[in-house]
Each structure stands twice: as structure tokens, then as C-alpha cells.
Specification:
This protein has 234 residues and is mainly alpha-helical. The protein is built from 14 helices and 4 strands. It folds into 2 domains: 111 residues, no CATH class; 111 residues, no CATH class. 56% of the residues lie in helices and 3% in strands. The strands form 2 sheets. A two-stranded antiparallel sheet has the order 1-2. Strands 3-4 form a two-stranded antiparallel ribbon. The longest helix is centred in the middle third of the chain and has 17 residues. It is globular and about 55 Å long.
Amino acid sequence: MSYEDLVEEDAFLVLMGRPISTASFGRILKREVQGIISVMDTMIYAKKPLNDDVLLMLPGVKIGASDILRLLRKGLTSVIDSDTILHFHHKSFEDYLLSNSFLQALPELSAVQDRGHHEHQLTVLCLKALVSSKLHFNICNLDSSIIRNVDIQPIVKSIIPPLICYSSLFWVDHLIQIPSDKKLIDAVKFVMYEKLLFWLEVMSLTGNVHEAHLILRRAATSQVCLQVISLQHI
């Protein structure tokens, strides 16, 4: 393996902030950098922490034998919680990643500050979930007698995938941050025309049906949604 294929440990100590004395990555492959940036930026820009199964769907995270999530947990010991779901517990570290100091220290990793790129990444993640077969009619296989007589929340939590729950709540929040393109238009069109009732069902089952109207109102401000359907009457 050549020197050019490696990022030295000292460089990543700069990336992770020199005050973080517990950072210990060893040698990092250049091909691992995209996955590290994808996860860290998702931790910054996602509306709530996402579990490992979702993070593994991000670009560059699942690359053969490399374990990006384990690497981050080991290297960011002092700035992430020891919970099973990755998230920063020091806001100052997020500020550092988005600061000029970070940009000057490691300009080759400037993509960490490209919010538009990462909002697009999260939008695609959400829309892929919503257009997939995982969002479907009667998603929890409930009948009317169960709905009337049983607390369905344990059933809902055990059956509806976390990414479907996240995407149902936040797809528009990410969408309104980015410009339009054909793939996004096609995906939103499919959601609005083919999956809308299934989306509303998830919102109802998760106790968020009151948010649905507000989400569609926000969608009316998106360049993408305005090219799909007129939402001004909502």
C-alpha cells in the first residue's frame, strides 16, 4: 500500500480537533474518508440521530471490510455519547467542523462544510425510503378490532422501520434546502401520487398526523414540489 493511499493519524487528529486527546484512528484509508464525512455530516444535519442500519446506507460507509462506524466510535470517544445511536454530545465539536479553522487545517476535506450536498444526500435517503415497498398500505397489518381495543404503539414501534418514520417526518425539511432536479421531481411525484395515503397512515400511526398538513404546507415552498403538483390550496 502506497503512502498516497493513506491519511496519516496526525491529520485526523487535526480533523477531530486537537483538544480531543482520546482520538486514535491509526492509519485511515483515503477511500474511508467519504464514509467518515458522510456519517459526521449526517450527525450534524439530520433532524434526529439515525441508527446504524440507516447510516450504512450513506455513500462510502459500507466499503467491504472497513467498519466506518466502529472507527468513528473509537476515534470520537470524547465527543459522542456511548449510546447505540451515534450523535455528538458536544455542540462545540460541530461548530469546529463547520469553522474556518477546520477548513484551513484540512482544506481537502472541505466537503464536510457543504451543507447543500449533505441536505441532498439526506433528501435522497428519505425519498428512496418513501418510494420503496417498505411504505405500503396497512403497514402494521392491523385490523379494526385491534385498533379499537389494543394499545398499538408497541406494534407500531416494532414494525415500522426507523427510516420510514424519519423520512415521513422530515423529507420536506431536507427537500426545501436544495435545488430541483429531474430525479427528485420523479421521486416526489411518485410519493404524492402513489404513496400519499400510505404516508398519511404512517403519520397517523406514529402520532404525527397533526404535522402532515404543516409538512405539505412547507412542501409548497419547494422548487421540486412546485414542479410536481400545485399545493397552494393546502
